Amino acid sequence: MKKITIAIPTFKRDDSLRQLLRDLNNQTFNDFTVIVANDDPSTKLLDHLDSNDYVYELQVIDNDKNIGLTLNYLKLLDC
């Protein structure tokens, strides 16, 4: 199990998210997990992101409905 987890709540920020994930990929330390919670039910990030493109473990949670920033963040804390 990784000791560091980066939790990222997102809503309609695909381009910014991709840039952030690329930047994390370029870090010299890569022994961490990234969990992204997508609160935009019209976009499935799993269809657009390939976890094999990253040197770290990537998990994506696509919400079935918009639950808002606070609940989306709390959902990440439950992972």
3D shape: globular
Secondary-structure class: alpha/beta
N- and C-termini, Cα separation: 13 Å
Helical percentage: 25-40%
Q: How would you characterize the largest beta sheet?
A: 3 strands, parallel
Q: Average pLDDT across residues?
A: 90
Gyration radius, in Å: 12 Å
Low-confidence stretches: none
Question: How many alpha or pi helices?
Answer: 2
Could you spell the SSE succession in H and E letters? EHEEH
Strand order of the largest sheet: 1-2-3
Query: How much β-strand is present in the residues?
Result: 25-35%
Number of strands: 3
How is this structure best described in words?
With 79 residues, the protein is of the alpha/beta class. Helix content is 28%, strand content 25%. It contains two helices and three strands. It has helices at residues 14-25, 68-77; strands spanning 4-10, 32-38, 57-62. It has a three-stranded parallel β-sheet with strand order 1-2-3, covered by helices on one side. The longest helix is centred in the first third of the chain and has 12 residues, at 14-25.
